[in-house]
Amino acid sequence: MDFDTSAELFKALADPNRLKVLKLLVSPPANSCAGPGSVCACDLEGELGLAQPTVSHHMKLLVRAGLVTATKRGKWTEYTLNPQGFEQACELLGALQQPDSNAAPCPPKTLQGVAS
Amino acid sequence: MDFDTSAELFKALADPNRLKVLKLLVSPPANSCAGPGSVCACDLEGELGLAQPTVSHHMKLLVRAGLVTATKRGKWTEYTLNPQGFEQACELLGALQQPDSNAAPCPPKTLQGVAS
DNA sequence: CTCAGACATTGACATCAATCAATCTGAGAC
DNA sequence: GTCTCAGATTGATTGATGTCAATGTCTGAG
Predict the structure, then answer these.
(1) Where does residue A42 rank: exposed (0-12), middle (13-18), buried (19+ CB within 10 A)?
(2) For the segment B54-80, what is each residue's pLDDT rounded down to a tens digit?
(3) Cβ B98–A26 below 8 Å, yes or no?
(4) Is residue B66 part of a domain?
């Protein structure tokens, strides 16, 4: 178990604004400029009340942590949740409670990605 | 869903040394001064290679986050994992992936609440 | 090619967090 | 009572992080 990279993953989750972002990616606002089911950076800027560079910074961290996927669609960047990142976090939580380093995570998880 | 308190919980997990502590609490070193199955602060100090006040600081955070329970046993303080804290973290991970604000996470849980 | 819009990057600043030396507290041993 | 030890608290320092203004880059429209 790599404590440093594990800590990095949890660090990505350790900010209220980033948690809001993740929540917005599951329940996108109705008036999303990238269309329903999708969220672009400008949406997040409005919803979070943060400046554009700040949003960009947070998204970079979330993508690097593997929690979010960024896809360039023309002028916009479309962000979607990455279930694998959550699965990994859940596995880590399970592993922390097991005497053996690696362990089964919470439940058998089958996540509905972001169905649009 | 309270993003601030949720972030606090993940923040407690967002440090390599604290993750090591949690791992040590599941698999205590054989030569624990508090006896097998228990871990006291002096054990952690040796295992982590950190100064005593630093260990005390980390343990305070873990206890405050609900991940660890501290019990005074005479001169020593015995630390044990608190499964409820892990359960809550797991629930948060699940809730973040569900369109509804509060949702059934890892353990089978029926929880209804307010949408933010 | 030129322009405008969407993000990313950079730089600067303020705040937070990790660390340790020094000190304090509280419990057992004497 | 005093002494000693475990660990908590305080204060200071250093590095990490969140934030925004200014600027850069890339894409589509004209």
Answers:
(1) middle
(2) 999 999 999 999 999 999 988 899 999
(3) yes
(4) yes
Using one digit for the tens of pLDDT, what is the confidence trace for A41-56? 988 999 999 999 999 9
Task: Print the domain residue range for A87.
Answer: 3-97
Chain D bases closer than 7 A to any CB of the protein: 5-11, 17-22, 27-28
**B97 within domain boundaries:** no
CATH of the domain at A25: 1.10.10.10
Asked if the C-beta of A104 comes within 8 angstroms of chain B's C-beta atoms, the answer is: no
- Separation of first and last alpha carbons in chain A: 36
> CB of B84 within 8 Å of any CB in chain A?
no
Tell how strand A76-81 and strand A39-40 pair up.
antiparallel
Count structural domains, chain B.
1
Of B16, B93, B107, the CB nearest to A86: B93
